[in-house]
Design goal:
Shape: globular
Distance between the termini: 25 Å
Strand content: 5-15%
Number of strands: 2
Radius of gyration: 17 Å
Structural class: mainly alpha
Length: 99
């Protein structure tokens, strides 16, 4: 786990840490992770209001159930190339890498 000061967030990359974070939505909430407009260039703020849905309702900045509502159409549009299934199966088998 690494803190990214420029974004004021933690980057979680190890399997067990990701699993722990995703399993504890109370401690590791994404809601309002990025304050509206704080991390955007003045050019972006000139086009979009910090209170616009662009800033308030995105996959990074919301928790369930809104996150699921926003994610589902994206997941339906992505091709299932078997990678996700392979990752899930390898993790369920206690493996740390895909074969």
């Amino acid at each position: 786990m690494t803190f990214l000061p420029a974004l004021q967030v933690y980057a979680v990359t190890r399997w067990q840490e990701v699993h722990d974070v995703l399993g504890d939505a109370v401690t590791f909430a994404s809601s309002e992770a990025f304050s509206a407009g704080v991390h955007f260039a003045p050019e972006a703020l000139a086009i979009y209001s910090p209170t616009s849905p662009l800033f308030a309702y995105n996959l990074i900045n919301v928790d369930k159930p809104l996150h699921t509502h926003l994610r589902d159409p994206l997941m339906a549009a992505l091709p299932d190339d078997g990678l996700i299934s392979a990752l899930v199966a390898s993790r369920a088998a206690g493996e740390n890498e895909l074969k």
